[in-house]
Amino acid sequence: MKSTVKIPAVLLKNPVHFLALGFGSGLLPKAPGTFGTLAAIPVYYALASLSVGWYVLAVIVLCVAGVAICDYTSKQLRVHDHPGIVFDEIAGYLLTMMAIPFGIGWMLAGFVVFRVFDIIKPWPISWLDKHVHGGLGIMLDDLLAGVMAWLVLQLAQWFLLL
Q1: Were both Cys, which of 71, 83, 121, 146 would link to 96 (CB 3.0–4.6 Å)?
Q2: Rama region for 107: left / alpha / beta (φ>0; ψ in -120 to 50; rest)
Q3: Which DSSP category does 30 fall into?
Q4: Is residue 66 within 8 Å of 88, Cβ to Cβ?
């Protein structure tokens, strides 16, 4: 069950909360995860010109930092995995888009496939969501959704090249 604890906008003044709340997108009352994923698109756009190696390194750094970022904000809110904490969606989308051709079609496909895995939470994502807690738990289920979405996009790429 997701929390109904309202997040005060004043938290955005703290840079860690600003990141955890997806630059403010997590404060939206409906579908904060979807809006958090939308907030990831400009971040992806900024990183897309990097070589694959630098992109992967940037995603790894963001994922590791995300554990601490999400943990800090969840502790301050006193709610584990509050829906407003959407940095995990940003990291999951960036992972989804790793080594994917740059283009609006691929960005949209990545968005849709990632959201499907994040919302449906097939096993083992659902297991991780229920059993791993703290910042690692907040991040891990979305990162696995990102890996599954990445695999789907890799397969799509492979079939399109045939």
Answers
A1: 146
A2: alpha
A3: S
A4: yes
